[in-house]
Specification:
- The chain is mainly alpha-helical and 92 residues long.
- The protein has a two-stranded antiparallel ribbon with strand order 1-2.
- The protein is elongated and about 50 Å long.
């Protein structure tokens, strides 16, 4: 190990040497695409609105429509995420 040149990695069993950057390229940070961030943000807003409906200050006549509105916004966010193929294109 100590006699290896800096920036090189030997692959196990093959004896081939490649650069450390190419070997660790799959570990680089992937920030995702803007449409994916928009979909996730919409889903989070729906979750917050739906959860906020259960706070004590809201009476049942206000609570249920607010909860269903939050659920609807969450589902819209899921459709945006699915349409953008976030889990297949933005994943490593």
């Amino acid at each position: 190990m100590a006699d290896q040149a800096a920036g090189t990695v030997e692959t196990a069993g093959t004896g081939a040497v490649s650069s450390a950057h190419a070997a660790n390229q799959h570990l680089e940070h992937n920030p995702g695409r803007p449409i994916s961030w928009i979909g996730v943000t919409i889903a989070i807003v729906g979750s917050v609105v739906g959860g906020w409906a259960w706070m004590p200050p809201f009476a049942p006549p206000v609570m249920w429509p607010m909860f269903y509105a939050g659920c609807a916004v969450f589902v819209v966010g899921l459709f945006v995420i699915a349409g953008a193929k976030t889990m297949s294109k933005d994943w490593y």
